[in-house]
Amino acid sequence: MQPEMTDTRASAPVPRTAVPKTVLMCRPDHFAVTYRINPWMNPDLPTSTDLAVQQWETLHQAYLAQGFDVQLIDPIAGLNDMVYAANGGFTLDGHAYGAKFTYEERVPEGPAYMRWFGEHGFEVHEPEHVNEGEGDFLLSNGAILAGHGFRTSLESHDELRRIFDREVVSLRLVDPSFYHLDTAIAILDDANIAYLPGAFDDASRAELERRYPDAVIVDDQDASVLGLNSFGDGATMLIAQRAAGFERSLAERGYATVGLDLSELLRGGGGIKCCTLELRR
Ligand code: ARG
Questions:
Q1: Among 87, 103, 175, 228, which residue has the most ligand 1 atoms within 8 Å of its CB, making it the best to mutate?
Q2: C-alpha of residue 72 to centroid of ligand 1, in Å
């Protein structure tokens, strides 16, 4: 018997390749929870802007340590949620599709982000239809996965298709706690995703199963700390520190992880990915 000849390929993690990212972030200088537009928010409980800034800074520094190019947009007083930059638009191939927010409280963020895109070399497309940017639009394998059901309208998916000339896959969200697509799906790299099956209607779940038979399936416990609201460069994922099961699944697949605590920003209903808008020129 030669036990040393055992084939271990099946269990050996795949080597992963890092592709450094360029991202846009917004310091939470005006963060507060004073209204409720998602189930995570409770305006009756006090929030700490200082703590939010401190925790956000750990994310900012972690991106810099990964070699990311981090761009910053100036926060605007009165726009509590502007820190969730993912909602500011969707960029690809030098084009920026602006956001048109569902709730009045966030509407002024749309033009602010569009102005930034225009000043930084993007061709800006003013949105006709309600959409909350990369919160609901995720690039995967050359296609755009597009959420709807709570914030982003189905009509905006056609607008997206027209602007970017890419395949757009509409996915219906059904759980109010996972109201943006980036709370229910994490992009791991070009080909791989992780998701929470219960966040989708039957047809969308079937579509995800068909497209991603090897996806990482995340459970309610990890999803309930917004574990899926994570971001990485294809080799290292920055994830919520409390999402222990998700962290193990990623490690088994050969991804390195950096765990972060954004508990104060979670009280606004957002995590790592919500604070991050990818810039693709
Ligand atoms: N309070 C914000 C809202 O309800 C949180 C946004 C979270 N962003 C995200 N991309 N999931 O709009």
A1: 87
A2: 18
Homologous superfamily assigned to 22-278? L-arginine/glycine Amidinotransferase; Chain A (3.75.10.10)
Q: Encode pLDDT of 195-254 as tens digits.
A: 999 999 999 999 999 999 999 999 999 999 999 999 999 999 999 999 999 999 999 999
Pocket test for ligand 1, best of 24, 30, 38, 134 (most atoms within 8 A of CB): 38
User: Which residues are CB-contacts of 30 (< 8 A; sequence separation ≥ 6)?
Assistant: 49, 75, 76, 77, 78, 79, 80, 82
* Residue the block writes with tokens 């998602």: 38
pTM of the model: 0.95
Q: Assess whether the C-beta atom of 28 lies below 6 angstroms from ligand 1.
A: no
Distance between CA atoms of residues 231 and 32, nearest Å: 24
